[in-house]
């Protein structure tokens, strides 16, 4: 099975699916072009609602990690290879912004930490 869901976790199932697929895409476990299971198939395999998988897939698509090609299905997108680079660029831009604003390192990290929690 490509992912699993821990029903005892406080993390919502869609987020467990989304984050695990994102991790596998970013670390290369799921290569560019890999066809993902259909929403219904993965939902049935995991014993959760299809809308849960659909939400995870939508968020992955919005992030540029997967591409949905109509009836052909969903595939790992080529932009997934660039996600870490984009994150580094965003971090560099953020660091420059907080420096211009005179915000110290500890406070800047605290702001990022708070943003990641929300």
What would you say this structure looks like, in words?
The structure is a single chain. The chain is mainly alpha-helical. The protein has 2 domains: 66 residues, Winged helix-like DNA-binding domain superfamily/Winged helix DNA-binding domain (Arc Repressor Mutant, subunit A, Orthogonal Bundle), CATH 1.10.10.10; 35 residues. 57% of the residues lie in helices and 5% in strands. Strand 1 and strand 2 form a beta hairpin. Helix 1 crosses helix 3.
Short account of what is shown:
The chain has five helices and two strands; from the N terminus they run αααββαα. It is mainly alpha-helical and 118 residues long.
Q: Please report the first level of CATH classification, the CATH class of the largest domain.
A: Mainly Alpha
Any idea of the CATH topology of the largest domain? Arc Repressor Mutant, subunit A
- How far apart, in Å, are the first and last alpha carbons? 29 Å
Shape: globular
Helix-strand makeup class: mainly alpha
Strand order of the largest sheet: 1-2
Mean pLDDT: 91
Number of domains: 2
Task: Give a short account of the largest sheet.
Answer: 2 strands, antiparallel
Strand portion, in percent? 5-15%
Number of helices: 5
